[in-house]
Specification:
- This protein is 38% helix and 23% strand.
- By secondary structure, the protein is an alpha+beta fold.
- It has four domains: 76 residues, Arc Repressor Mutant, subunit A (Orthogonal Bundle); 40 residues, no CATH class; 82 residues, Roll (SH3 type barrels), CATH 2.30.30; 75 residues, no CATH class.
Length: 303
């Protein structure tokens, strides 16, 4: 008889279950319980819990589909969970605040656990900005600076995180107006650093302050940027990949070549990598080499 498991052990087991079941479709319930060293009843409870898990949206289209009534376990609609996912800004903030609550309300943590929580909390704050707290949000302060910039026609100097290039940059911007898209707030403005019109997402501003006026604006629009064209071969059909590159999924065939256009080489490379081999770049050679280097540096992080 196996010993009872703690909630932490159950969480670790649930995380291991998805890739294991994907590689062992149709395994018997008894074999599965033996592999994870738990009783069959415990494994059934785990499967019932896993059945309610999935990607954000949490409709039947995103939830994991399991079948185990017959005594044999199969899993469907779980392939996206096999890919590495990046966290959104709101997910990083939620996790950081959760760590704060865990650290401040649990007096039974030992020094090693506290140190691990602090290290993870610091890494999360380095991704989105250090001023994360349950009290006033830094975004409110940054937005008020942008609003003042629009009102007084005064440029703002800001530090901004770009999701497409996964990097931070310092910019001087003359803001024009706010707008909402897909439940996120943005503002348009002339970027004196890039010497062109740009759109910025408010919750990705890391710091902002009004600054002195700069030179006269020389307007060029984002649409004037030179697009990057690549030729890629289809190695595996993937609907999410097709949607990312604006390709018609029903027209795609394995072995076909497609032309993809993008304005950001960084976004293009990261999107190709996120496809996990569904697309293979054939031309230009420069992009192929950059993807190869990016994959090598990513794999080195796991060594």
């Amino acid at each position: 008889m196996s010993k009872p498991t703690t909630p932490l052990e159950q969480t670790a087991r649930l995380l291991d279950l998805v890739p294991f079941l994907l590689a062992h479709q149709g395994i018997s319930l008894d074999e599965l319980a033996d592999h994870f060293n738990v009783e069959s009843k415990v494994m059934i409870d785990d499967l019932n819990t896993l059945w309610m898990c999935g990607l954000p949206g949490y409709t039947p289209l995103e939830l994991i589909d399991l079948a185990f009534d017959s005594g044999f376990v199969t899993i469907r609609n779980a392939a996206p969970l096999a890919y590495v996912r990046t966290m959104s800004s709101s997910e990083v903030v939620s996790l950081a605040l959760g760590l704060d609550l865990l650290r401040s309300h649990n007096d039974r943590l030992d020094k090693d656990q506290v140190d691990r929580i602090d290290r993870l909390s610091t890494e999360l704050r380095n991704q989105i900005g250090v001023e994360i707290s349950i009290a006033a949000t830094p975004q409110t302060t940054h937005r008020s600076v942008i609003a003042e910039s629009i009102k007084t026609r005064t440029p703002v100097e800001m530090s901004y995180y770009s999701a497409s290039s996964d990097s931070e940059s310092n910019r001087i911007v003359s803001a024009y107006d706010f707008f909402y898209e897909n439940e996120a707030e943005y503002f348009r403005g002339y970027c004196h650093t890039a010497k062109a019109m740009r759109t910025f997402r408010v919750d990705r501003i890391l710091s902002a302050a009004l600054t002195t006026p700069v030179e006269e604006l020389s307007l060029t629009h984002e649409s004037d940027q030179v697009s990057l064209r690549i030729e890629a071969g289809i190695r595996r059909l993937d609907r999410s990949m097709a949607e990312a590159f604006d390709l018609e999924y029903r027209d795609l065939r394995i072995g076909d070549s497609v032309i993809i256009e993008a304005f950001s080489p960084e976004w293009l490379i990261r999107s190709i990598m996120a496809g996990a081999g569904s697309l293979v770049v054939e031309n230009p050679e420069e992009i192929r080499l950059q993807i190869k280097e990016s994959i090598a540096s990513t794999m080195a992080l796991y060594e």
